[in-house]
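Lesson 9: reading folded outputs for more than one chain in a single document. The general rule is that every protein is listed as its sequence immediately followed by its C-alpha cells, and records are never interleaved. Here is the first one.
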Amino acid sequence: MIISNRGRSNWSECKRAAATLLILLFTPVLGRAESIGAWAITWIEIKAADKAAQVLANPNVTAKDRLRVEQIYYQLVRDNPQSAPAQNAVAAFLWENGQAEAAVEYWRTAQRLEPENAEAANSLGGAYLRAGRVREAAEQFLLAVRSDSDNPDYHFDLGNVEFILRNDLTAAWKIDSAELLKRALFQFREASRLAPTDLKYARAYAETFYGIPNPDWKEAQVAWQQYLELATNRNFAYLQLARVTLKQNKKVEALSFLGKISDSSFSQVKEKLRKQAEGF
C-alpha cells in the first residue's frame, strides 16, 4: 500500500508556514507577534530534532544514541504540548523507528489539537490502511486533501485507496465502483498536475483510463504523452500511446508509435497491436 512520503509533507508544511509567517509579519498586533515568536521557536526545535535523528541512518549507531534522539523528540512535545506540528514530528519519528502504535496516538493528538491538520490526517490514513481499516483510512485521506489541496501526495494516496480498494468502499460510502474509479482518476490527475515532473503520478493517471467505464481516449493520449516526456525507458510509453490511438481509430498514428518500439520484450504485444491497426 502507499504510505505518505514525509518529505512532501514537510514541503507542504514549510509552504504553509512561510505563507502564515508572511501574513503575520504584516499584521502589527502584539499578541499575534508573541505567537509568531512561539511558533518560530517550536519550528526551530522540530528542525533540530529532525537533524539529530539523522545520526540514526548510520548502521553503527549505538543504543545510547537512539535513546538520546528519542528523548529529544519527547522533550519537544513536553515543551510544546499544544503544537500539532510537534506532535506530528514525534509521530513520524516513532513510525519510522517501528513504534507504530505510539505514533498513531501522537497523530491523533495532533488531530485533536488541529482537526484539519492535513499532515496528521494523511499519516493516520496510511496507518489505518496498514491496519486494514479501509474506510477510516479513506476518510483520513479525504480530509487531508480537503485540508491541503495543493499537496500532490495527498491526492495520490486518496486516489490509490479509491482505485485499489474500491470494492471495500462501495458499501461504506454507498458509491458504485464506476464512480469511485472516476474519483480516483480525478485524484491522480490532480497529483500529476501539482507535480508535473513526477513519473509515478503521471503513470498512475494515465493507467487509470483503462479501468474506468467509457474513458476519454483523447485525454488518455495526452496523459500518456506526458508520461513519455518524463520516462527514461520510452518503449512502454510508445506501446501505450499505440493502444490509446487505436482506441480512437487512428491507424497511421498507432503504427507510427509501434515503429518506435525497439525493446524486443514488447515484440509479441507490438505485433498484436500492429495486426489490429492494419485490420482497420
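And here is the second record, again sequence then C-alpha cells.
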Amino acid sequence: MTEPHGPSTAAQPAPQHANRTYKRRARNILIHKPMQREFSLVLIALLIVSSLAIGFVIHSTIREAVFGSGYRFGKISPAEILSDVSYLLIIRVSCVLFVTLIIIGLFGVFFLHRVAGPVYRFRQTFLKLNKGEIPPTIHLREGDFFEETAQEINKYLEKMRGAAASSSSQA
C-alpha cells in the first residue's frame, strides 16, 4: 500500500497542536483564579479612577473657562475660549493618563514579581533535580502566588530525601 501523501510525510514533524492532551475551553481561561482576579480588579479600579479624574478635569476646565479665570465674553470671542479650553483639556487629560500609565506600570511590575519569583524558584528546583541533586525546600515570600504548588513540590522533595536516606542507610 502506498501512503496518500507520498513517502516524504514521515519526515515532516507533526503539528504542535496534535500533541495537546487538553482542549482550550472557556473554563480554562482562569488558570490561577486568585491571581487573575486580583490583577483584573486592580486594573479595572485604576481605569475607573482614571476615568473619573478625566471627567473631573474636563468639567473643571470648562467651568474655569466659562465662569472664572478672567474670560469675558464681551472682549474675547467664544472661538478663543474654546481654543484655550481645548488646549487645557489636552494637557490635563494627557497628564492624568500619563500618571495612570505610570501607576499601572508600577503595579504590573510588583504584581508580576509575585508571580515570576515563585516560577523562578520552581525552575531552579527543577534544574537541580535534573542534575540529580535534591534541592532545599522552596520558601516563598509573603504575598507570593503559587504557595500550594510550592507545598506540593516540597512534599515531593521530602519523599525524595526520605528515599535517599533509606537507600543510603541500607548500603
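What the second record shows: The helical segments are 33-67, 78-130, 147-170.
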